[in-house]
Amino acid sequence: MEKNDIRESLGGRLDVVDMEYDIKRMLGELNYHKSKAKIFEQTIKARQEELEKMLEIPKSNVDNGEMYQ
Q1: pLDDT given at position 41
Q2: What's the rounded Cα separation, in Å, for the pair 32 and 6?
Q3: Left, alpha or beta for 56 (phi > 0: left; psi -120 to 50: alpha)?
């Protein structure tokens, strides 16, 4: 009976370790995508500023990129 308890205990601990690993991996992926989104937003803002300069559009009260959020 002790051997069965040990196996169940081991299985439970492995499940916990697997879950912790999955969470850490997903957090890493989330941070990666957040950083990519930030770069994307910065690029949009820079392109919008370039376009406004080309078209000689005066600055508006709305900050660049705010309309997309």
Answers
A1: 96
A2: 39
A3: left
